[in-house]
Design goal:
The protein is α+β, with helices and mostly antiparallel strands. It is 18% helix and 56% strand.
Length: 363
């Protein structure tokens, strides 16, 4: 019996050792697999970070289209009823070099042309440089309220007539859309929380409009100062001085205004004046609205312009009521009714009506 017990114990010890050896081998294999998976995950993470950095350097593409309908009584005496394409814009832009610089290229496709093409470098909050073609730093609405932000369908008359949106000099139209080619120095001073209390812009421009070389040897200057005592409140002043064309026609502009943009209410008012050669012009607008809901903003605007400041009969006043309806984050509907009052009757009528509908799709 004793002879039989010893071999059994020896066999059991050997089997137990084999089992432990097998168990250790399986554990080692599992650890090796885990190490391999961790290394693979690290490699994928590195690749993902490299890909993210590469994607960030690619231009970001955006754009929008604005399609409208307009019915109105014209000063010529006839009526108008038409669908139209107001804007079709495509934009490429992005950051450069550690995000202290950026660029933007914007094209208008409805009437093909380059609208914006500029580079900005701002190494410090107090100082930056913008070079290329872009909005001239003049007026609150020209700079701060682009077509996707403007609550009304059209810009005020004084801004259109004095800053190249619909400006004529000596019978020649200055096609600038409020833009020009030049260089601007800008920055913010006296930081308070997340904002700078004082913003400045000083620019030098050709003065000939977009996509044009200068048409004389002089350069135009533009100055703009904004004071923000509160995050929602802006006080703004602008000055522009230049000479137009081969005849060096004097072109002076100035503007002063105030804007309040709160969570539920907004209001703006601005006075604009100017001199083109011997002709003096002036006008003002005041707009206010209530963001009743996320999808409904009613607004009203009074818009006055006198092409000849010395001739009271040249005055035109537009009273506008409208609805701004952001149906979806990428779809917007705007409805405007404007009563146009002329100081002197136009074909027997002093008051003309204009109904406008604008649909904006963006991406």
């Amino acid at each position: 019996m004793k002879r039989l017990l010893f071999p059994l114990l020896l066999a059991g010890a050997l089997l137990g050792r084999c089992d432990r050896a097998a168990g250790q081998t399986e554990t080692d294999r599992l650890n090796e697999r885990l190490d391999s998976l961790e290394q693979l995950l690290e490699r994928q993470t590195v690749r993902s970070e490299k890909w993210s950095r590469a994607v960030e350097k690619l231009p970001k593409v955006s754009g929008y289209a604005q399609l409208g309908y307009q019915w109105g009584e014209l000063a010529s005496g006839s009526d108008e009823s038409t669908f139209y394409i107001k804007r079709v814009r495509l934009t490429l832009g992005g950051a450069l070099y550690r995000r202290i610089a950026d660029y933007r290229i914007q094209m208008e496709l409805a009437a093909p042309r380059i609208v914006d093409a500029y580079v900005r470098v701002a190494p410090w909050r107090q100082f930056g440089v913008q070079l290329g073609q872009y909005k001239v730093p003049f007026s609150i609405e020209n700079v701060d309220y682009g077509p996707l932000r403007l609550e009304a369908i059209d810009y005020p008359m004084a801004l259109q007539a004095l800053m190249g949106l619909d400006e004529r000099i000596g019978g020649e139209k200055l096609a600038s859309t409020g833009r020009d080619i030049g260089i601007t120095f800008y920055g913010g001073l006296w930081k308070h929380g997340d904002r700078s209390i004082l913003h400045y812009q000083v620019g030098v421009f050709n003065g000939a409009g977009i996509n044009c070389r200068d048409n004389n040897k002089s350069k135009d200057i533009a100055l703009r100062l904004n004071v923000m005592p509160l995050p929602e409140l802006t006080l703004s002043g602008s000055y522009y001085r230049g000479e137009w064309g081969a005849g060096y026609t004097d072109r002076k502009r100035f503007a002063a205004g105030i804007a309040y943009d709160g969570a539920r209410w907004f209001a703006r008012a601005e006075y604009l004046g100017g001199k083109t050669g011997a002709l003096r012009s002036n006008g003002y607008y005041a707009v206010a609205g209530w963001r009743a809901t996320r999808y409904l903003t009613p607004l009203v605007r009074c818009d006055v312009f006198r092409p000849d400041s010395d001739d009271a009969d040249s005055q035109r006043t537009n009273w506008l009521v409208g609805l701004d309806l952001p149906v979806w984050s990428h779809l917007r509907l705007q409805l405007n009714y404007t009563l146009q009052h002329y100081a002197v009757s136009q074909n027997g009528r002093n008051d003309l009506s204009l109904v406008q509908v604008l649909v904006t799709g963006s991406f």
